[in-house]
């Protein structure tokens, strides 16, 4: 497909996204609603719109060649995923249920369940293929060293004598088979013909009846196949299967486009470097002079108004670039205050009247607001709308008829690098201007015969005391490399390989009537498709990128509960495969006898924490998680399952928003443990 096809697909995605963000912002700014059914209906409709847009954006990012488009598409895609997860969190808070049923909204919009199946973007895993391959090869090498794997035996050339004996053996066997076949044919020729035997009347009637039934069956089957062929010809029936050749051709085209993508990306990165050097060589000094003139004009203007020179904003607060934003804010504030001054007396009177409201009425209003549902604040919606506006301003109406090869646009590269060089030069110029301002102020003070002790250094921005007081964990292995730590964990079986399993291999449809069942049952039984969606939304999507994980709803640990053979391990392997994650197995049966004692356990948790943060995303797995928090361990269990009871909550609490680490547990009997310890 050409670039026009994906431009149209991107435009369709933006239309769907604009509608979703519009409805979403209306919901976000609306008052609390007491009717949960109405809120659920509105939220589910917005979620379906986001799913449709995300699937289209994912396809665009996978196949669009132009590198500058891909940067914006990826940003919009990640922001959309983040907002979808926020809405999912609101839906969970609304229904107190981890499973979200979108069947009603799907039917209302005239869509099929397959249309609202949110596809996990594959490019996150594809970008980590080299790291995943390195990990798997490293694990294989370590296991070969320790004797767990046997090296493949290299075939040695066979001696000539042995080869001759083997050929003779096969030739004798061939001749024996030929003699046996010849004797079989001789015996068949001497056997009397079965057609010469006369059949009885009953046998003849039976044969005719069998022939009649068989011919009727064959004829009916031919007629049915002709009817199906006719229906397929006129388009009344869909084909049973997709043509394999066409599917292969489509995959070849996609692979070819990905190769061109990589080529265009390298050209774009090279152009960024060359353009920056070009700007520095030609307009660097002029840009410095322009910045100096702007800042000098600013502080001379302030001096003429106030009689003294102002302080230049510190580098932490933005430097001289902050001056212009401050002036805009100040001018708009002065206009608003002048307009509101005439209404001062009226507002004062209204406030005095409002202040006389009784406390009971205020309390009553607060209770009314509390009874309704209010959506949580969003960290993604505002940025998503800004990114969509960038598409409207830059890419929507762009004429690309002369850029059929989808090269990068030089004017955008130039504007981007001019802004970047200006930021770098502004920092350098600000240092000189601060010294210049200090000299000018000292000279002014002398002229005015005023002795004012001025600080020679710019006051630094005060950091929060809590952040400064935060103790860092002591590094118990400061002199060891990542490879040595990884090797130790592999040798002890803490890190191991897992079978490649995609999440869509966990077969099952989502609920077709979940919303209807929820009317009389707040906790309906989920289907396999609902379980797959819950695992996707809780375990996979939040861990895809740093942007989504840091700003989205925090998910540190997940428990998958179910009966034996229900597919818990399949889901664990699918989560690790979709993320390309490093798997750490802290199951009690796996760590028994390893790292003994308190110091050994401390070292084990240190190694897991350190390597998990270096090889993000990481999954820490515990099988039969309820055993860790059981009140009384059976005497027959010799694995010491309560070994991690005290340290596991600390490990989870230490997972920061910047750490893409997930604790995953499975359980067949979650009711056997202390519920407070498990959920706390």
Automatic annotation (TrEMBL):
- GO MF annotations in UniProt: ATP binding; ATP hydrolysis activity
- Specify residue ranges for compositional bias: Low complexity: 329-344
Write down the SUPFAM superfamilies for this protein, in alphabetical order. P-loop containing nucleoside triphosphate hydrolases
**Annotated region Disordered: where?**
329-376, 454-477
Q: Which residues form a coiled coil?
A: none
Indicate, by first and last residue, each region the UniProt record lists as having compositional bias (Basic and acidic residues).
354-367
Q: Which CDD domains match?
A: IQCD
Q: Which residues form the ATPase AAA-type core domain?
A: 558-675
According to the UniProt entry, which residue ranges have a biased composition of type Basic residues? 454-472
| Source superkingdom | Eukaryota
Q: What is this protein called?
A: IQ and AAA domain-containing protein 1
Record the organism. Schizaphis graminum (Green bug aphid)
């Amino acid at each position: 497909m050409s670039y026009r096809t994906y431009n149209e697909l991107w435009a369709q995605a933006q239309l769907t996204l604009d509608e979703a963000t519009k409805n979403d912002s209306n919901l976000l700014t609306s008052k609390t609603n007491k009717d949960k059914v109405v809120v659920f209906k509105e939220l589910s409709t917005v979620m379906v719109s986001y799913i449709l847009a995300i699937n289209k954006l994912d396809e665009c990012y996978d196949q669009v060649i132009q590198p500058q488009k891909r940067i914006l598409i990826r940003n919009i895609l990640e922001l959309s995923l983040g907002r979808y997860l926020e809405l999912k969190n609101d839906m969970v808070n609304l229904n107190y249920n981890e499973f979200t049923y979108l069947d009603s909204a799907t039917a209302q919009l005239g869509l099929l369940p397959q249309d609202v199946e949110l596809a996990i973007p594959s490019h996150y895993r594809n970008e980590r293929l080299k790291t995943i391959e390195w990990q798997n090869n490293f694990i294989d090498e370590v296991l070969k060293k320790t004797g767990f794997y046997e090296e493949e035996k290299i075939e040695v050339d066979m001696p000539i004598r042995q080869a001759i004996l083997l050929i003779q053996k096969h030739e004798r066997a061939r001749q024996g088979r030929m003699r046996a076949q010849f004797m079989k044919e001789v015996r068949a020729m001497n056997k009397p013909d079965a057609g010469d035997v006369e059949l009885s009347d009953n046998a003849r009637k039976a044969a005719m009846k069998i022939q009649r039934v068989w011919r009727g069956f064959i004829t009916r089957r031919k007629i049915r196949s002709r009817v199906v062929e006719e229906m397929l010809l006129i388009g009344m029936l869909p084909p049973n299967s997709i043509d394999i050749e066409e599917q292969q051709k489509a995959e070849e085209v996609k692979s070819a486009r990905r190769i061109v993508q990589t080529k265009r990306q390298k050209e774009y990165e090279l152009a960024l470097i060359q353009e920056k050097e070009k700007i520095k060589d030609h307009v660097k000094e002029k840009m410095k002079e322009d910045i100096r003139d702007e800042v000098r004009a600013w502080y001379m203007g302030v001096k003429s108004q106030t009689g003294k020179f102002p302080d230049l904003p510190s580098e932490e607060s933005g430097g001289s670039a902050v001056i212009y934003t401050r002036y805009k804010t100040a001018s708009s504030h002065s206009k608003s205050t002048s307009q509101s001054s005439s209404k001062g007396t009226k507002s004062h009177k209204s406030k005095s009247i409002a202040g006389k409201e009784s406390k009971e009425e205020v309390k009553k209003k607060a209770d009314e607001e509390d009874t309704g549902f209010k959506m949580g604040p969003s960290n993604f919606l505002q940025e998503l709308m800004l990114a969509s506006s960038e598409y409207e301003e830059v890419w929507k109406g762009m004429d690309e008829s002369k850029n059929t090869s989808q090269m990068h646009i030089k004017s955008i590269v130039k504007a981007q690098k001019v802004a970047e060089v200006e930021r770098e030069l502004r920092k350098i110029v600000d240092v000189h201007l601060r010294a210049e301002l200090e000299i000018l102020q000292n000279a002014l003070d002398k002229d005015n015969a005023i002795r004012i002790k001025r600080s020679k250094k710019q006051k630094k921005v005060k950091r929060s005391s809590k952040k400064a007081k935060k103790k860092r964990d002591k590094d118990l292995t400061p002199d060891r490399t990542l490879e040595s730590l990884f090797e130790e964990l592999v040798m002890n079986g803490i890190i191991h390989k897992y079978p490649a399993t995609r999440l869509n291999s966990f077969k099952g449809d989502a609920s077709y009537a979940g919303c209807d069942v929820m009317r009389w049952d707040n906790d309906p039984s989920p289907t396999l498709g609902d379980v797959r969606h819950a695992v996707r939304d809780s375990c996979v999507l939040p861990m895809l990128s740093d942007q989504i994980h840091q700003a989205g709803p925090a998910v540190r640990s997940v428990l998958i509960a179910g009966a034996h053979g229900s597919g818990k391990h399949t889901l664990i392997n699918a989560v690790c495969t979709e993320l390309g994650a490093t798997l750490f197995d802290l199951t009690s049966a796996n760590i028994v006898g390893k790292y003994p004692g308190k110091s050994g356990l401390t070292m084990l948790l240190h190694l897991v924490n350190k390597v998990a943060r270096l090889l993000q995303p990481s999954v820490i797995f515990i099988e039969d998680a309820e055993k860790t928090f059981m009140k009384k361990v059976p005497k027959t269990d010799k694995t010491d399952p309560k070994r991690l009871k005290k340290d596991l909550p600390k490990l989870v609490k230490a997972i920061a928003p910047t750490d893409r680490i997930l604790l995953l547990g499975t359980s067949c009997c979650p009711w056997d443990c202390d519920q407070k310890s498990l959920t706390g």
